[in-house]
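Continuing the series of single-chain predictions for the mutant panel. This is the parent chain; the variants come on the following pages.
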Amino acid sequence: MIAILDYDAGNLRSVEKAFQYIGEEAVISRDRDEILAADKVVLPGVGSFGDAMEKLKSSKLTSTIYDVIEKKTPFLGICLGLQLLFEQSEESPGVAGLGILQGEVLRLPDTEGLKIPNIAWNSLDLCNDGRLFQGIPNQSYVYFVHSYYLKAKDREIVKATIDYGTLVHASVEKDNVFACQFHPEKSGDVGLQILRNFAAL
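Parent structure:
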């Protein structure tokens, strides 16, 4: 069973439906016992970094997330869910993130010809043999919606990048923690294969 964390940060139903489409049992939950009993856990998210951290705390999910990570349960952050795994974001100065991974979340630079937010299909440069990308060709297109991007401290955890006025670390993996800046649940067959790979871990 896959638990999708419910902290009023949107986009939960589309993630749930994508997992159900590939034949996986998925539940939207903020129940600590149910989440800790799950085989896999997903942290989606849309909106601002500061608001999302406040909602995680008010939903009493932060300690549950740390316990899931410590249990070595496979954990997937999606979009804002990726950013929340890091220490902080330029979007919300002074707000601490979960701090599970190290790196900076920065605003996309103003670049001639590129719109912010980046709402587009971008092709991934795969690297470092990510487990989420098994069977997926390099330069496959996935769907992004974001104004802020990750610059991870440890390049070894980076499994996919895009170039959008700067090098964007689009997916990371460390031990049982996985994350994508893009939306696999909205990325067609490629995204569904990424979710299948996560479900099969």
